[in-house]
Design goal:
- This protein has 159 residues and is α+β, with helices and mostly antiparallel strands.
- It has an 8-stranded antiparallel sheet, covered by helices on one side.
- Helix 2 packs across helix 4.
- The longest helix has 32 residues.
């Protein structure tokens, strides 16, 4: 898979070496990364919770459960973020994991210096995931910069 920059969305599309190293998926079929420059000091988990909350919102449930069929936990827990299971963490990253019958996904939040990034990695387990995701990926890439911007605003408000 090649790496290309989509300047209209600010999202880097493709599998980077750092994403591959942090992902738990052996066969990544889709990946993108969106980065925001910020002066907010927060841990990757704080960023993830500011992005997605402790339990999925109605819109997230529609997208993640309804359209993608991801199995998400409905309860708030230290082991989940918005229903995604915390699958790994380090000093400057956290990996959220979810799966459906047709695909598996990782959301990787990483902090480095004055930057925070959200990387989305998907592994297609059934042929229909390759058909369903491409049109949804355009919506995803248009939403992610706003997710980072809103998380920045939330973290600033918490002080």
């Amino acid at each position: 898979m090649s790496t290309t920059v989509h300047s209209d969305t600010g999202v880097l599309r493709g599998v980077t070496a750092s994403a591959r190293a942090l992902a738990s998926l052996p066969d990544i079929g889709y990946a993108d990364r969106c980065t925001r420059v910020t002066d907010v000091a927060a841990t990757p988990e704080q960023w993830a919770r500011a992005m997605f909350g402790d339990v999925p919102s109605a819109a997230e449930r529609f997208l993640w459960r309804g359209l993608l069929g991801l199995r998400l936990d409905r309860r708030s827990s230290p082991d989940t973020v918005a229903g995604w299971r915390v699958g790994g963490r380090g000093e400057d990253w956290i990996r959220l994991e979810a799966a459906s019958r047709s695909l598996r996904g990782n959301l990787i939040v990483r902090t480095a210096g004055r930057r925070v990034s959200l990387t989305t990695c998907l592994q297609y387990d059934r042929w229909w995931a390759r058909v369903v995701w491409p049109p949804l990926s355009a919506v995803h890439r248009s939403l992610v910069p706003g997710v980072l911007r809103d998380a920045d605003r939330r973290l600033r408000a918490r002080g």
